[in-house]
Write a structure and sequence with these properties.
The structure is a single chain. The chain contains three helices and ten strands; from the N terminus they run αββαββββββββα. By secondary structure, it is α+β, with helices and mostly antiparallel strands. It starts with a helix and ends with a helix.
Length: 159
Amino acid sequence: MMIRKSLLALAALAMAGAAHAATYSFTGSFDADPATSVLTGTFSFDDVVAAAGGFDGSFDLTSLTFSFQGQTYTLAQATDPYVQFDGGQLTGPNALFTTPSGGVLALQSFWGSSGFTYHANGADHLGTLNISAVPEPEGWALMLGGLGAVALIARRRKA
């Protein structure tokens, strides 16, 4: 009975946690040379706000950092930054940046996919972004706690 109460208390505590940002990492490469990753970084947004919106539409980014051609770009440098959902699916971050050489770099979400464009010296270069979720520490802790509880219950039943 004591273990059952402890497990219920642990579950209630986990569900009562404060809102946190969903974090994603991404890599990008030019379509003309997909073997060369030229853009890497992370972005995050408030997943509770996104869930309240039904996961359709755009939501403010809470962080954005990436590297491109030896330069690091951050959310503070971005023009019009947001994250886009379409049909319940994350399509990616959107933001515009001016490069030190005067070029324009745009992260873009469109028709269920993510990409980027780089306009410099009168030419447009198109690239593709590959996005993956970054596991949250709370998720790992909850999973390990659950495995520990199952092991404890199995051990008590065996004894």
